[in-house]
Design goal:
Largest sheet: 7 strands, mixed
Oligomer: single chain
Radius of gyration: 40 Å
Helix content: 40-55%
Number of helices: 14
Shape: elongated
Length: 644
């Protein structure tokens, strides 16, 4: 078979995923980005907002033109005395107080100031302050509106939270933020604050909070579900990794929810948040290695590297107060290399598993492509700060978590299906044992009747001799006929030389006839079939059981069942036909159960057996009834013929 068209279609599908994921990230960059939201920005420390500007743009992100006062904790009074001793700064341009100078400490103090020129009418405004590291005071004009922690070095205490303040103002308004950080990697105001109408600001905040809460709840539900499966099922090692993955994802995604409702200190929460992100990557690598059945030393190296990065990230966060700027740059470069290697490794292992016909690896390969695209676009478009969603690599990681969840669902579904089929096979085996016991009982009964007949035979001979001597030929003929009938009653009818199949067919023959069903069998089978007899009896038992049940439900017409079988050309071939009345349930070309929703367990067991032994099955219905034709490969042996 030419695989070239299939390979081309698969390659085009993967290219389509690249295109769609890239389009997603470009759309996020343009439409969910604080830096691309069109609105007038401050120039040289002043923002002028007219009434028409306010009407056209009721919410804006204050990212440009902040006056930055390094190493100073100012107040509204001391701000007026600073003169020109400052520099202009765009929020997000720098992430700590070192200002790019490796000789400076990334920790310390600083102040940010911005002057707003608003419409002359008094109006209520809202300002959302995202997480500011790590303690601060915020002033509007001369009034202290918000304080988190204690920024003074003598009594320093870190604390941060995403907060919204409202105030009434008109004309000239001065915003002043004074920050101290001796606790964390980032310092000061890292994310642009939102400024606008209270309704708009609270709406955006609520949507962002709601999206994050939905993700947290969903991952927690999956974590609880996988924990339940871990303690109640025998899926063993993988299920615990699934549980840890969803629990860690819930911890990582809950940070935005927690920072929105709680005022938290930096340690240990931010260190845990940082480490949990890399722990998600570690668990994804471990699970993909197992799902893709990656061989050799690669799983050991990849797992060890991801684990080392995870531990290093935890210590990096816990000892943030001791870090210098060169150490931060070294860690950042190391993490960049790790993420690049992880993206390449995940792509390679998933692609190799797909090539080896691993059915579960294709969904992982698609998610890995999204993850790799997220990594690329994160580097190509660094000036990105989401309004509602997450960063590019958070979306990429979420795609991996979802893909692994799909694989988990597939494994659970298949495991449940196999357990049901196994239970059905167990039921058939118990029934088969019952049939064998009944068959043996009948044989013993016939043997006892035969022994009794042999014991009484001398008496029959005396009677025959007496009748013959007296010339009573008519009585002699009737007596012989009676003996013959007794002898025929002691013979056990055989449908085939194979004992197990004979017991099975005899059982359903008796069951059918007791229900008023005409049962016919034409079996041409050897005593030794060279095929697993338990599986064969399970297959035929399910087909005959369905046939008997269909006839028992039949309301009109003659009730008939016919089974035929033969061994020919290294194939075992069987036909099971039965009459029925009513309508058959069909979905997607498959016949559904009449007793429950979905495919019947008996049919599922039959299909699984046929597939396991590379056989062929054809099931169809017409005006004559329902027909099942099965062909299974065997090594042909000599056989005898029986017809009933």
């Amino acid at each position: 078979m030419d695989k070239k068209p299939f390979v081309i279609r698969r390659s085009l599908a993967l290219l389509l995923i690249v295109a769609l994921s890239s389009a997603l990230f470009l759309a996020l960059y343009h439409f969910d980005n604080k830096y691309t939201k069109a609105a007038p920005q401050a120039i040289t420390g002043a923002l002028y907002v007219s009434k028409s500007d306010w009407t056209d743009t009721p919410i804006r992100y204050l990212k440009d033109g902040w006056r930055y006062y390094s190493d100073r904790l100012l107040t509204p009074e001391t701000l007026k005395q600073q003169g020109d001793n400052y520099k202009y700064l765009s929020i997000g341009e720098l992430y700590n107080f070192a200002m790019g100078n490796p000789k400076r400490s990334p920790h310390g103090s600083a102040s940010y100031a911005l002057t707003l020129y608003l419409p002359e009418e008094v109006h209520t405004y809202a300002l959302e302050l995202p997480e500011i590291y790590a303690s601060y005071r915020f002033y509007v004009n001369d009034r202290l509106k918000l304080q988190m922690g204690e920024p003074n070095s003598e009594a320093y205490q870190d604390q941060t939270q995403c907060r919204v303040i409202t105030f009434e103002a008109s004309g000239k308004v001065t915003l002043l933020l004074t920050v101290s950080n001796h606790s964390w990697i980032y310092s000061g105001m890292v994310y642009p604050p939102a400024f606008g109408e209270p309704l708009n600001v609270y709406t955006i905040r609520g949507l962002r909070f709601g999206i994050a809460l939905i993700v947290v709840i969903a991952t927690l539900i999956f974590a609880i579900f996988t924990f339940y499966l871990a303690i109640r099922t025998h899926l063993r090692h993988n299920i615990w990794l699934f549980f840890l993955l969803y629990l860690t994802t819930a911890v990582f995604t809950s940070s935005s929810v927690a920072h929105g409702i709680l005022a938290l200190p930096i340690q240990p929460w931010y260190a845990i948040e940082l480490a949990s992100g890399y722990l998600v990557t570690l668990l994804v690598v471990l699970l993909q290695n197992r799902i893709c059945d990656t061989k050799g030393i690669a799983p050991i190296i990849s797992g060890s590297l991801a684990g080392a990065i995870c531990v290093l990230a935890l210590f990096y966060g816990l000892f943030a107060t001791k870090l210098t700027l060169p150490m931060m740059h070294a860690f950042s470069n190391m993490v960049f290399g790790f993420k690049l290697l992880t993206a390449v490794y995940l792509l390679f292992t998933a692609a190799l598993a797909v090539r080896q016909n691993n059915t579960k690896a294709m969904i992982l390969l698609c998610a890995n492509i999204i993850y790799a695209c997220a990594f690329v676009w994160d580097r190509l478009l660094p000036n990105y700060e989401p309004v509602l969603g997450g960063w590019f690599q958070e979306w990429g990681s979420l795609s991996l978590v979802i893909a692994i969840g799909v694989v988990l669902g597939y494994e659970i579904t298949m495991g449940y299906r196999h357990s049901l089929v196994f239970a059905e096979e167990q039921r058939q085996m118990k029934r088969q044992l019952t049939m064998q016991v009944e068959h043996l009982r009948q044989m013993n009964q016939k043997v006892e009747e035969s022994a009794k007949l042999r014991h009484d035979f001398r008496h029959h001979l005396r009677t025959l001799m007496t009748l013959a001597g007296e010339g009573r030929y008519e009585a002699l003929e009737n007596y012989i006929r009676g003996i013959t009938e007794i002898n025929e009653g002691t013979r056990l009818g055989r449908l085939t030389d194979n004992i197990e199949l004979d017991a099975l067919v005899q059982y359903y023959s008796n069951l059918a006839r007791s229900s008023g069903i005409q049962f016919r069998a034409r079996l041409s089978l050897p005593e030794v079939l060279n095929f697993p007899i338990v599986d064969l009896c399970g297959l035929l038992g399910n087909l005959m059981e369905n046939a008997v049940e269909a006839c028992q439900r039949q309301q009109t017409g003659d009730k008939t069942i016919f089974i035929a079988g033969r061994a020919q050309d290294c194939q075992l071939e069987f036909v099971v036909d039965n009459s029925f009345s009513g309508e058959l349930k069909i979905r997607g070309g498959s016949y559904l159960s009449s007793k429950r929703n979905g495919l019947g367990l008996g049919i599922s067991s039959v299909l699984e057996t046929v597939e396991r032994y590379d056989g062929v099955i054809n099931m169809y219905a017409d005006e004559k009834g329902f027909h099942a034709e099965v062909s299974l490969p065997i090594r042909l042996a000599q056989h005898s013929h029986f017809t009933v």
